[in-house]
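Minutes, project check-in

Agenda point 3 was the complex the collaborators sent over. CS summarized: two entities, 476 residues total, and the question is how they sit relative to each other. Sequences were read into the notes so everyone works from the same version.
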Amino acid sequence: MSGEITADGRTFIHQHAAHCESGVASALFRNQGLDISETLVFGIGSGIFFGHLFFIKMVGLPITTFRAQPGAVFKKAGRRLGMKFVTRRFRSPQKGMDELRRLLREGKIVGLTTNIYWLSYFPDRFRFQFNGHNIIALREIEGGFRISDPILEYPVDCLTEDLERARFARGPLEPHGLMYYPESVPKNPDIRSACIDGIKDTCKMMLGIPLPIFGVRGIRFLARRIKNAPQKLGLSEACRHLANIVRMQEEIGTGGAGFRFMYAAFLQETAELFNSGEIAGLSQEMTAAGDLWREFAAVAARIIKKRGQSEDTFARVYEMLMDCASREETLFRKLKSAAGKLKS
Amino acid sequence: MKIKEVPQDITYYEGKKRACYALDDKGKYVIVPSSGWSTEEVVNGLAVAELAAKLEKTRQAVLQGLKSPLAYHMERRQMTTAILAKTAGICRFRVRRHFRPEVFVRLKASVLQRYAQALAITCQELKNVPGK
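CS then shared the predicted structure for the full assembly.
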């Protein structure tokens, strides 16, 4: 946590966060005077998800997503908390940068969607072509901007040309210079009913999408594909695929175990809000599911390292993922009925 | 995950730490900075090594005159043909044609300039690959 001055002389408190989007959204809300934690925003905005998009490839590997689509958390959380917010995209980079400067001079702080490759303040091994990283621009400085990136512990500087490239990068999910900020935040938002909405939406996404690649069914789908991978693709290809899944799960800003711990933290806060023992118990179950995901990652890494020489096999990983899926299925079913009983 | 289970294995974030959520002694979730996990090191190391090996292969191909330096610089920026084509504003099949060295050397300065702009390098850098 560290203080930082914005253009109009107010203090902005930078807080370290696990996930870029919920980190940015909660920081923007806090800056408007609504004291809210990252995990609450994450849960209200229904940030947790699962999908195995085998037909979309990044560097030749299928995408496994543990999060909802980029931008959804801010929008959903903002809407459910009754805020007015502005989102803008631009066709011309020049206009996009001018508008950003104008807003910063007014003393606003602005959330931006960027391509993580062009943000040169990151260590090289984090930089890859992904158009869904969120940061906050605090103020303009000489030759660049002061940036609060919630993934990092402290605010950083970013060169103007880097930021322009990052905001107007091309490729899948183009950001088109997307910027967003809350215009007005209600004094006493109904956090309780927002939590219920968020939980119900999440349960719907994890249980109710009638396609086998999303939600709990998606986890099973992925498990089956992993089990068959060594015969289908050969051992080294199968290892590559497995490594990619673990990367998506742990690598960038998931708070561990593909957001399971973050969601458990959200359930814990919700339990306190409603004083509900049932939700508190579900939070613990979520933690247990998260621990299992972590174990899956550790076993997978051993397989990859030893190239099939260890006693850990693909069948074992399959069992673990199936276990994760069945645990989460019962968990979300219970959560759905628990949320139905809660009164805002 | 409890606080003492938060991995502090490696420091490959170049001194930067990442936030993890973990349970404290009273069973309450708090943010704990982590310096890295050896599991991640394995999977991430694999991906990084793979990219580096592919890039080196392309560099050798350029030196042997099989590919143009454009192919190397595109891969160095971790771009695909589609991304480069959109960024430079040049049609995808033309970009692919420009991977051929004999086509690349005949390119006009204005086209080179667009590639250099898209890849954030100078025209001079674009025409060559690093020696080692």
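Noted in discussion: The helical segments of chain B are 38-63, 69-76, 81-88, 92-97, 101-104, 109-119, 123-127.
Follow-up: revisit at the next meeting once the mutant set is ready.
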